[in-house]
Amino acid sequence: MTNSKVGRKLLEEIAPEAFSLLNSMRDVVTILDGRPKGTEMKKNLLKIAVKILNLYNSTISPLQIQTTCSDNGQ
Amino acid sequence: MITEEVYIHSLKLPILRAWSCYVDFCEMPFAVDVPILKGLMDEIAHHVLAEMSKHLSQKNLVMLTETLDYLCSEDTLTRVFKEEEPLTSTRNASAALLRKYWDAHIPKMERERVHSIQAENSYQGEKKNDWT
């Protein structure tokens, strides 16, 4: 599973509001500069989100992230 | 690891101010001031990059730098606030989400602090243009 997919899963589960906002940002960028740019921006921010969550989130440990991903067979 | 002081003064406050500015600019198009928002976003990007450079690979650091450069550029921010559909509706939808989270999750004291800074800056701006 790639970092951006892990990031998406985490955001959907622990911060659905942030995920909605990210989708909204993607939509704005898509209107401005096309779908590939919007998708790329969202993917890049998701990759960084998972790094930041791993670094700073005290409630979800990397072990839990792995468990979450394994539980879903990914 | 980032210190609490850096977090609060260099990251959290600029994030809250940029958040508040974005919502205000969407709700009041006449108040749009791209340089103010760009300044706040540049400050956030600077501190995020400084911190993340300790943890990211060179490849991911380049990717993050390019993404932040794009989002913080004057050109992107200017185009974000253009008044044309479907951009206006999409932008306002994002502002509505941010407004909802702001009201629900940001402590009153922090909201008031940010509003007080924005009001003071706005007053200073008005004073500069007041030639009467």
CATH architectural name of chain B:
Up-down Bundle
H/I helix tally of chain B: 6
Total of domains of chain A: 1
Indicate the proportion of strand residues of chain B.
under 5%
SS elements, strand count of chain A? 0
What would you call the shape of chain B?
globular
**Are there runs of chain A of 5+ residues with pLDDT below 50, and where?**
58-74
Pairing-aware structural class of the strands and helices of chain B? mainly alpha
Order of helices and strands of chain B: HHHHHH
Q: Overall pLDDT of chain A, averaged? A: 72
Could you say which overall geometry of chain A the principal axes of the C-alpha atoms support? globular
- CATH C-level name of chain B: Mainly Alpha
Q: Could you give the count of β-strands of chain B?
A: 0
CATH topology of chain B: de novo design (two linked rop proteins)
Q: For the record, what is the CATH homologous superfamily label of chain B?
A: Tumor necrosis factor alpha-induced protein 8-like
Kindly report how far apart the N and C termini of chain A lie: 6 Å
Radius of gyration of chain B: 16 Å
Q: Work out the count of structural domains of chain B.
A: 1
Query: Can you give the helix content of chain B as a percent range?
Result: over 70%
Q: What order do the SSEs of chain A take from the amino end to the carboxyl end, as H and E?
A: HHHH
Cα-to-Cα separation, first versus last residue of chain B: 51 Å
